[in-house]
Amino acid sequence: MLLPLLLIAGFAVVEAVGGWWTGSLALLSDAGHMVSDALALALAWLGSWIARKPATRKHNFGLGRAEVIVALVNALLMLAVIAGIVYEAVQRLADPQPVQGGEVMLIAFIGMLINIVVAWMLHKGHSSLNSRAALLHVLGDLLGSVAAIIAGAVIYFTGWMPIDPLLSIFISVLILLSTLRLLGEVLHVLMEGVPRHLDIQAVEQALASTDKVREVHHLHIWSLSSERIALSAHVVLEDMQDWHPVLSKLRHMLHDRFNIEHVTLQPETVTALSNGSANCWLTQKTEHAHDHDHDHVHGHAH
After folding, report:
1. Domain extents in the chain
2. 29 versus 108: which is more confidently predicted?
3. CATH level 3 topology of 2-190
């Protein structure tokens, strides 16, 4: 993703300078969209680099969550950029500013060509979640460049200036949608939610249907980073002698079917589980009897 990142980031600078030079808010807002896409590509590239960092005593899971924190900061910064663009657009609707339509069309057309090249590079590359998300960002960029071309053409041929702030608001809506989606994903990871592409019931059923496994409970699945998934569960067996071959089967199944690599499984026997349930029932019964006696004494005191 490094070459697409350099192309997008480099032209974002060109488009920002061009927007300032031509007076086009549509170009400036599209440059903001390209910056958000460059950040998304940078996070994907950074994530693969951070993933190679070994765990330490302070950070037992490694530093994979760093990309999630950076994504949160970038999303909040992009919300500030969107607010600034919309505010300026409203001001320009009330007081239209002159825009050089021909230059806007030229710069936006070059941006459209770069977005087409980057989209093709990402499409023919890896089909990971990161690359697919980056491709969606770039396709949004492509739409933004088309909008800037339309704004330049309308101004060049008709001189109607309000089209520039109107289309800049449209592009800002595109950025807002992708930013809110990113924020939702970041918060879901930070709240240790089940990864959206996984069905926890399907995972539980796959574990429980493994040979020699009687039951699965206390199943938890969460994301260590955007691409690393962790799982922990209690696995009930008839005989503890079966544990090592069963553990190997479960680990391979979770890796092959669900791409879950960080797995912690606790074995239990049916007998131990039954005793634990009985002890739990006795404890609850004792607590209930204690509460009843307490209420009885409390009533006499009154």
Report:
1. 2-190, 200-301
2. 108
3. Alpha-lytic protease prodomain-like (1.20.1510)
SS3 287: helix
CA distance 120 to 128: 15
Cα 93 versus chain centre, distance: 35
pLDDT, tens digit, 9 for 90 and up, residues 238-272: 888 999 999 999 999 999 999 998 999 999 988 76
0.85 exceeded by pTM? no
- C-alpha to C-alpha distance for 234 and 264, rounded to whole angstroms: 9
CB 104, CB 151: distance < 8 Å: yes
CATH superfamily, domain at 200-301: Cation efflux protein, cytoplasmic domain (3.30.70.1350)
Q: How far apart are CA 185 and CA 174, in angstroms?
A: 17
- pLDDT for 296: 44
Q: Which residues contact 131 (CB under 8 A, 6 or more apart)?
A: 1, 44, 122, 125
Instruction: Confirm if 145 and 112 have CB atoms less than 8 A apart.
Output: yes
Q: What confidence score (pLDDT) does residue 84 get?
A: 79
- Please give the C-alpha separations between residue 103 and each of 21, 138, 142, 153, in angstroms, as whole numbers: 9, 23, 18, 10
3-state secondary structure of 225: coil
Which residues are bridge partners to 217 per DSSP? Answer: 234
Q: How many CB atoms lie within 10 A of CB 283?
A: 10
Find the helix packing angle between 101-123 and 129-158, rounded to 10°.
160
pLDDT tens string 150-208: 888 888 888 888 887 888 788 788 878 877 887 888 888 889 899 988 999 999 999 99
